[in-house]
Amino acid sequence: AIDISNLRDQTGFITLDKGYKNTGATQSGITFLDGEEGILRYRGYAIEELAEKASFLEVAYLLIYGELPTQDQLTKFEASIRRHTMVNEDMRKIFEGFPVNAHPMGVLSSLVSAMSAFYPDSYNDKLPDQTDLHIVRLLAKLPTIATWSYKKSQGHPVNYPKNSLDYCSNFLHMMFALPVEEYTVDPVVAEALNVLLILHADHEQNCSTSTVRLVGSSRANLYSSISAGINALWGPLHGGANQEVIEMLEDIRNDGGDVAKYIEMAKNAKQTGFRLFGFGHRVYKNFDPRAKIIKKAADDVLNKLGVNDPVLEIAKGLEEAALNDEYFIQRKLYPNVDFYSGIIYRALGIPTNMFTVMFAIGRLPGWIAQWKEMRETKDPIGRPRQVYTGSPLRSFVPITER
Ligand code: ACO
């Protein structure tokens, strides 16, 4: 119970809203989200339409600069991203120091943080005209860095980017091409990746985006702010859930595929500590529109690639059981974006420990757009208040008397 008298300090009353369930931290013109109706729009465009018709870099431009690019603008944007896909060889030396089993998210956030040291002009707030360059560098280099961990885990040499390819195909080339044989990107795989990245591109003031804004609100540079966002995304209650989902589905399969048993465990989450990963959302209380698109895409992609993944059936079984169960109905727990995305990533050949990295590549334009908006609207430094629950004033006790 909260002692209401604690809500007052010398400067007035304080609102206590743990987890910011009902507290707006900012005004934003980037993403519209209606959790009751299951609506998601970037800069006014429906997510369904963007996923069907746009390329990821078009959506990135839209989020960051506010309008869909003209052909000329897009060509220039893509060209400048291509020009920056290579990563400073000295960054490779830092990378070489990581152990082979380092989690790719730890590597990614560390190397993005290192970028602030490689580009010191980024912490000169008096050079706002450099911001576009930092934006392009991040968009260009994140996929390159992301593939290094995978290559190392396989004992393979890293691939340099191949700039004749589009953004998604280039990533797939850096992941899967080997120096000893020809590699051609499967257009089905590249298109599936394009859709997944678009669906993850922004989601207004979620945990990682709020982190980016909070860090950036102290006027910290873009690289440091994005690195903090990557770390926030890593947690299993946020972006890390996509890895947890596949591991959970695997566990259920190895345990005989008894979906009902796991539904029961989730219903007793408080005692068992087991949550159905990929279920529930802070804002969506009806359905997650991204999950709808991804569920359909999972069927399509697996069919087109001729992949038969038994965990897809387990996922569908869990969803159906949960949708008919009072516990989940009452709490409005529906599959979220992460429930089916891992199944697609797996079909594309992406290893499980890279799933959250894929989320980070997708979310990058959203983080950048939110950071830029915060700077441009001159939001004040973020500094939440607290309600003190500790000891009243007491006297120091010398160590010999404790
Ligand atoms: N499985 C079982 N029970 C759940 C689940 C779940 N996945 N999610 C919520 N609940 C229950 C809670 O135990 C709680 O029950 P109670 O009313 O009896 O106390 C009730 O539903 C409300 O849950 P909260 O944790 O209070 O909801 P909150 O909005 O704080 O959390 C969250 C949202 C973190 C997404 C939560 O639903 C969860 O942990 N889901 C699993 C992890 C996950 O999939 N995260 C990805 C989210 S999407 C994204 O970040 C991209």
TrEMBL record:
An annotated GO BP: tricarboxylic acid cycle
InterPro entries: Citrate_synth-like_lrg_a-sub, Citrate_synth-like_sm_a-sub, Citrate_synthase, Citrate_synthase_AS, Citrate_synthase_bac-typ, Citrate_synthase_sf, Citrate_synthase_typ-I
Catalytic activity entry: oxaloacetate + acetyl-CoA + H2O = citrate + CoA + H(+)
One CC-aspect GO term: cytoplasm
Keyword Cell membrane: no
Gene Ontology molecular function, alphabetical: citrate synthase activity
Keywords: Acyltransferase, Transferase, Tricarboxylic acid cycle
CDD domains, A to Z: EcCS_like
Record-annotated active site: 281, 338
Top-level taxonomic group: Bacteria
Keyword presence, Nucleotide-binding: no
Associated pathway: Carbohydrate metabolism; tricarboxylic acid cycle; isocitrate from oxaloacetate: step 1/2
Family: Belongs to the citrate synthase family.
PANTHER family attached to this UniProt entry: CITRATE SYNTHASE
Protein name: Citrate synthase
The species this protein was found in: Rudanella paleaurantiibacter
